[in-house]
Every structure is written in structure tokens, then in C-alpha cells.
Amino acid sequence: MARMSSALFYQDPRAALAWLEKAFGLELTMLLEDADGNVAHSQMTLGDSMVMIGSEWSEDHQSPKSVGGKNTQTVSIQIDEDIDAHCARARAAGAIIYAEPETQFYGDRTYRCRDPEGHIWNVAQTVAVVSREEAEAATGLKITGWM
Amino acid sequence: MPRPAISPVIWYRDPRAALAWLEQAFGFQTSLVVDDGAGGVMHSETEVEGGVIMVVGPPRDSATTPIAAGGQVTQSVHVQLSEEIDAHCERARAAGAKIEREPQTQPYGDRVYTCLDLEGHPWSFGQTIQALTPGQMAAATGHDIATSL
Question: Strand, coil or helix: what is A139?
């Protein structure tokens, strides 16, 4: 059971459900619809985790598409294999890839994209185990704690 | 801890203050902070009950924080607690969380409260009081419930 779940707001949550399945392989596991067929609540799962896809249910809960592309939160997806194929699938579905897959100093290969309403998704795959000392030496950054 | 498949990433104007506040208010435990060399945080991980969030900031590019966006948000976070949700709410309130919905048991069997954190990010917390089947939930809420497209 997921302990921590992101809830994302969309102008068209039903389209988002279909797109997230096609682009990222998320699986719809719960959909609540009101009497008019509007999405009241939904859950999509990936492995041990889930996200909730909903509507712009108040003036304060908005899709990036409604607020000039801004994001107050984003979602990080951790996968086990073949991040380049994951990126290609997302691109084919219409994701805007704005950081192509690249191996980072901390040992993860990552890419970043926007979905059709402008939500930002970060996708990562661990490809090398890097020590904190190695990471600090490679970057000059100060690091507290480590994976 | 192995990372869950999906983790929320939350942008703050002052990510170090946020990490400290999340520990005090919600019981998070910070496990990793990567300084960006300019006083900000390029990556961090903080955990509660086996879930992890990443706290980063200050915002750049298209990222923002609710206090810089007139209180508007594009996502929220839900945390499922295993126990003591009322005490959790009191702890959050004492730390300065703005409680928007007081703890209340919902028709779908969870007790839930919602609040805003120190920069206005919305959080909801739930604890399952009574586990219901989708059919029981549908009857209790009046919504149609499907478990696939």
C-alpha cells in the first residue's frame, strides 16, 4: 500500500488517465464518477505506488495549463530498466522531452518531460552505485546523508 | 531505503526551512540533502512511514511555490498513516499548519484531515478506520466506481 501519493489536477482528467496509461504505463485501478460522468477521484498505480488524477476542483487547484505552465510540485518515477525505451514511448505519446536521458553524477540516468497539460515528470533509473565521497569529488557539492 | 516507484517532488522558496518544518509538523525524517552550492537544495529525500518525498528549491524555470503563486497549486500530496491521525493533526496544528478540514471519518472508511504547510502546499492525511470493498464505497458515496477503464 502506497504511503505517499501525488494528486494532480487536470482540465481534462479523463484524457489524462488515458494518456498516462499510454505514455508511462500507469494502470487505472480506481475511478469514481459522479452522476454527470465527471471524474470525482481516480487512482493509477505503478509498482508499489500510485498517483491520483483529478479535476481543477477549486480556484486554487489548477492544471499547469491554466496557470501559465507553472508547477508547484512534480512527480518522480523510479524504474528498474531501459529508461531510454521509456523515454521513447513517452515521446511517441506526445510528451515534450525537455531534458533527454542522461547519466547523472549520483548514478541515476534521468530524463524530464511535460505531459499534455504541462505537468512535469522526472524519470530515473539507477545505473551505477556511486559513493557520497565520489559524488562530492565529482561535483564540488556538499552532501548530507546518502542513498 | 529502496525508493518507491513514484515520489512527489515539492518546490519551496526555503527548502531547508521546509525540511525542518516537515520533521516538526508531520514527523518526517530527512535522509539526504544535496546542497546546490548557492544556499539552495538541488535534491533531498525525507521519509515518513516508508514513503518518501523530495524537497527542492528555490524554484527555477517553470517551478513555483504556492506563496509565489497566489496560493494556487498544481498538485497536492496524500499520506496514508497507520495510526493516531488525530494526534498527527494536533502536532501539525501546533507547528503552524493551517488546518483546512478537521479530522473526520469519511463514507469510504478513511478518517481524513487536510492542511496547508508553511509555504501553502496542500496535504491530506488519511487513516483507514474501516476497509470497504469498491461496491460498499459506491453505495456509501453515491459515485459509480470502476476498477479499470
Answer: helix
